[in-house]
Write a structure and sequence with these properties.
This protein is of the alpha/beta class. Helix content is 23%, strand content 39%.
């Protein structure tokens, strides 16, 4: 699985103009399931994200995790993280998991993250979503397993 993690002051996701998910201080996590990913991979990535030390401590150093801060998470599915741009000008997405499999793995990721304690809200898998955020830092981290 792949994830693009952004430390945010706030983030929201809307579908057809309706707010469906949001978070205050914490993380916006864009997630993509890849072909061959497993539920175990989703659980492992969720644990890595939750423990990633990218929040400031008292000294201003990135030394605290989402679990340490009590922040929330907004998790949005984004198959375009599977983009292959190695040939031509049009990205290919053939390495992304098929939709039904991707949706199941997305749900596994969300459930595993929520089980670790943070408040987790989500986008709508497969929907055309409008995501807004206020970056904190900015801090943006790419992860995959």
């Amino acid at each position: 699985m792949r994830a693009l993690i952004q430390r945010v002051r706030e983030a929201q996701v809307r579908v057809d103009g309706t707010l469906i998910g949001q978070t205050g201080p914490g993380l916006l996590i864009l997630v993509c399931a890849m072909q061959g990913d497993t539920p175990e991979a989703a659980t492992a990535l969720a644990a890595r994200v939750a423990k990633l030390r990218i929040f400031r401590d008292e000294a201003g150093k990135m030394n605290r995790s989402l679990l340490d801060t009590g922040g929330g998470a907004l998790v949005v599915s984004q198959f375009t993280l599977a983009a292959d741009t190695s040939r031509g000008n049009r990205p290919g997405f053939s390495t992304a998991a098929p939709p039904a499999e991707g949706q199941a793995l997305y749900r596994d990721f969300v459930a595993a993250l929520a089980a670790l304690g943070p408040r987790v809200e989500t986008g709508e898998f497969g929907a055309d979503m409008a995501v807004s955020l206020i970056n904190d830092g900015p801090v943006t981290i790419w992860m995959e397993n």
